[in-house]
Amino acid sequence: MSETVTKKLMLYFPKCECEKPIIYHLVKDHNLVVNVFRAKVTPEEEGFLVLDVTGTEEQIQSGIDFVKTFNVTVNFTGKGVARDEAKCTHCGYCVPYCPTGALNITDGQTRQVAYDESKCIECLACVRVCPFGACTSAF
């Protein structure tokens, strides 16, 4: 029996694909457990979906292959939050608002703000508080 794993994915739906029951088929036909973290998918618009899929490597790959048949782009980082280094002034204003420490100051000498994407839970606090727009969301 294959080992069960979980992968985080971000799916981008062009407006022509937003009304299809894709998640239903991932669960029913590919035996995946799906946990949706964030979604913005509406008819007549493009959409984004951040989710965890749990199953065997084979089931997950089969599900991804299925999703790609719908002109849906799959991003394997699975993050709807991005940080633009060029816009970041390293003011540190975001750091106390980040509940997981994904944004932190690792070197007290340089005071540079570091971003550990693996710790990000996409609470969007950084997006709301950054005075320079360095943190953005696909949503």
Could you explain how this protein is built, in words?
With about 140 residues, this protein is of the alpha+beta class. It folds into two domains: about 5-75, ACT domain (Alpha-Beta Plaits, 2-Layer Sandwich); about 80-135, Alpha-Beta Plaits (2-Layer Sandwich), CATH 3.30.70. The chain is built from three helices and eight strands. It has helices at about 20-30, 55-70, 125-130, and strands at about 5-15, 35-40, 45-55, 75, 80-85, 105, 115, 135. It has a four-stranded antiparallel sheet. Strand 6 and strand 7 form a beta hairpin. It is globular, with a radius of gyration of 17 Å. The protein starts with a strand and ends with a strand. The relative contact order is 0.20.
